[in-house]
Write a structure and sequence with these properties.
Layout: E1 4-5, H1 6-9, E2 16-20, E3 25-28, H2 29-43, H3 50-59, H4 62-95
Antiparallel strand pairs: 1-3, 2-3
Length: 96
């Protein structure tokens, strides 16, 4: 995905890396990571380390994405627990 305007996203499920509210331009995480990896590869002065530089570029925001993923999973887990409790309450009432 290339850089887009904020209004173009609507319901797309993407992680944002950069948002410029003045220009209404955004960059999703996938595009950002690809750009950083390409930049690291092209600017690494040691040929033998270019692939490592590329991998470092791809992984440099992994912690940020992991936090977002944990947040989503925690929300899902909490909903699953509520649903399970509700089912048990209904079963208890039905079984008497």
């Amino acid at each position: 995905m290339a850089d887009k305007e904020i209004n173009d996203l609507k319901e797309e499920n993407v992680y944002l890396a950069h948002v410029d509210y003045e220009t209404q331009r955004i960059q999703d995480a996938k595009t950002h990571l690809q750009h950083v990896a390409d930049f690291a590869y092209q600017n690494c002065p040691i040929q033998e380390l270019k692939v490592l530089a590329y991998l470092a570029g791809i992984m440099h925001d992994a912690g940020n994405l992991a936090r977002k993923t944990r947040k989503i999973l925690k929300k899902f887990w909490n909903q699953a627990i509520r649903y399970t409790k509700m089912v048990w309450i209904i079963l208890r009432r039905v079984e008497g």
